[in-house]
Structures are given as C-alpha cells and as structure tokens.
Amino acid sequence: MQESLRTRKVAELLRKEITGIITNHVNDPKVCDVVITEIKVTKDLDLARIYFTSYNKDSILAIKKGLDRSSNFIRRELIKSLHMK
Predict the structure, then answer these.
(1) Cβ-count burial of 72 within 10 angstroms (0-12 exposed, 13-18 middle, 19+ buried)?
(2) Which of 26, 36, 53, 59 has the most neighbouring CB atoms within 10 Å?
(3) Three-state DSSP class for 2?
(4) Are strands 34-41 and 48-54 parallel, antiparallel or unpaired?
(5) CA 61, CA 42: separation in Å to the nearest integer?
(6) Residue 62 DSSP label
C-alpha cells in the first residue's frame, strides 16, 4: 500500500505531538524511555497505528502497560493540541 503525501504529513505531525506529550506531560517514570519509531495512518485518517521502542530493552512489557494506562490521557492531550481540517 502506497502512502499519500497527506497521510505521511499527518503521521509525522502525530509522531511529533505524541513524543512531546509523553516527554512533557506523562508522569509515569516507566514511559520516559519511549521512542516513537513509526506511525501508520489509514487513508481516511480514521486509525493510526503507533510503533515504539525503548533504550531499556528489559522493560518493554512494563512500558507497554504504562502506555496502555496513559493512552486516554495522551489521546485527550492530542485532541487539545491538534487542529486539523
């Protein structure tokens, strides 16, 4: 599947915003080492799949649980900060 220019721009915007939210606003110490590696957005921009890694390879499962707990907060902050048509 070939990405369009719009989906690539939206994915990059999402990556920057989510990285900023995680580093500046999430207070969970398990999540501080997260690096967003890739975001894949569907053509209709309805769904975004986020891929991450961490420098601390031993605690990937703990980081995933921390991100799952913080997902609603991250989503709310993302809605506040993004203004798209």
Answers:
(1) exposed
(2) 26
(3) coil
(4) antiparallel
(5) 26
(6) H
53 beta partners? 35
Chunked mean pLDDT (size 10), the chain, 85 residues: 84 94 89 90 92 88 91 93 79
The neighbour count for residue 29, using CB atoms within 10 Å, is 8
Please tell me the distance from the alpha carbon of residue 18 to that of residue 66, in angstroms, as a whole number: 14
Q: Could you give the CA distance from residue 67 to residue 73 in angstroms, rounded to a whole number?
A: 10
Element containing residue 6 per DSSP (H, E): helix 5-24
Dihedrals phi, psi of 47, to nearest 5 degrees: -135, 135
Q: What is the pTM of this model?
A: 0.86
